[in-house]
Amino acid sequence: MGNKTQYPKPNTLKNFITKRLLAVLTLAIGTGLLIILTNLQFSHALTATSAPKPHPLPPILAQWQDQTNSGDYFSQIATTEVGYLVWSQFPVKVHIKQPQTISHQQAQTWVNSVLQTVQEWNNYLPLIVVEQPEIADIIIERKTPPLEFSRENRMPRARSALTRYVLYTSNNVLLHRFTILLSPTQTGDYLLAASRHELGHALGIWGHSSLQTDALYFSQVRNSPPISPRDVNTLKRVYEQPTRLGWSL
Hints:
The protein has about 250 residues and is α/β, with parallel strands linked by helices. It has helices at about 60-65, 105-120, 190-200, 230-240, and strands at about 25-30, 35-40, 90-95, 125-130, 140, 150, 155, 160-170, 175-180.
């Protein structure tokens, strides 16, 4: 369980945004969970940007009603320099990269597991699986994430999964794209849990729950939970928030 999630202090948007690659943020699941600001690259900052505004709720989320009154963990969701990490164009395009270093049967089993979690989240946000990675909004691949270093003793620790995003502009609109790395050590229920969890981050839940019954619980558990009403309640609240993503600069 270890360290509490730590969030980077926000920089001003003026010093943050660039024309192409803006920043990479990583969010990993493991025993000590950190969000780390990495690979910051910037050129000429844009001096004029639009104010954050909410987008209309996607129809599925707009219709969602929690009959259990389970509440949410929205207070644990981090905003970023560009606002909340919501998608504004649907369906969100997901590319599942076919593994190349294992047998065809093993690779298909892996793809099927990841595909199952895409279908689960599709019940709440419109998603579509695409074959072309260049058009994808989210790319998922079977790859060992880089090591995580403890702030206390700087000793490396393996990660079970990692989610990161890049910000870019297209036709003067601020957009984002996600990459999810799932460790080859993740199999069976653990793979399902990791994929379900990381997809939750990529869809906008940029933070963690403190309850083991939520898919976005901050650490892996033996009995991985499905997407809970609290997960969906949190997702809905995120999509009600203002953002600069999807708007003209």
